[in-house]
Amino acid sequence: MAFSSSLALPSPSPPSGTFRGRPAGRIRTGAAGRFQACFLPPPPPDVVVTRERGKNAKLIAALEKHNIQSLELPLIEHVDGPDTDRLPDVLRNDKFDWIIITSPEAAAVFLKGWKAAGSPKVRVAVVGAGTARVFDEVSQLDHQSLEVAFSPSKAMGKSLASELPRGSESTCKVLYPASAKASHEIQEGLSDRGFYVTRLNTYTTVPVEDVKPLTLKLAISAPVVAVASPSALKAWLKLISKVNNWDNSIACIGETTGSAAKKLGLKSVYYPTTPGLEGWVESILEAVRVHRQLKEAPKR
Question: Any idea where the Tetrapyrrole biosynthesis uroporphyrinogen III synthase domain is (predicted)?
Answer without folding.
Answer: 58-282
